[in-house]
Amino acid sequence: MSGIDWPGLMRAGLCGLGLTPTEFWRLSPIELKIMLGAESAAPSLTRARLDELAAAFPDARKG
After folding, report:
1. Which member of 1, 12, 16, 38 has the greatest number of CB atoms within 10 A?
2. pLDDT of 9-62, one tens digit each?
3. What is the pLDDT of residue 63?
4. Is the pTM of this model over 0.85?
5. What is the CB neighbour count within 10 angstroms for residue 10?
6. For residue 31, which of 50, 44, 17, 45 has the smallest C-alpha distance?
7. Cα–chain-centroid distance for residue 32?
């Protein structure tokens, strides 16, 4: 499996963006990503960033 949610991407492109199937399939993945606004989304949480957050906000036991 490719791990790509093709049905979801097609719904977003065809229904959300109003693209025709031909327009959708002519786009590069980065073009589709930009059109969907994914470039402005928050970056994915990396393990390094999770470690930073865990150090900054450690779990504390109550009582």
Report:
1. 12
2. 999 999 999 999 999 999 998 899 889 887 666 777 899 999 999 999 998 877
3. 67
4. no
5. 15
6. 17
7. 11
Confidence at residue 61, expressed as pLDDT on a 0 to 100 scale? 76
CA 4 vs. chain centroid, Å, equals: 11
Contact between residue 14 and residue 21 where contact means Cβ atoms under 8 Å apart: yes
Phi-psi region of 25 (alpha: psi -120 to 50; beta: other; left: phi over 0): alpha
**Environment class of 27 (CB within 10 Å of its CB; exposed 0-12, middle 13-18, buried 19+):** middle
Closest listed residue to residue 27, CA positions, set 9, 15, 45: 9
Tokens describing residue 8: 């979801």
CA separation, residue 51 to residues 13, 40, 41, 57 (Å): 36, 24, 21, 10
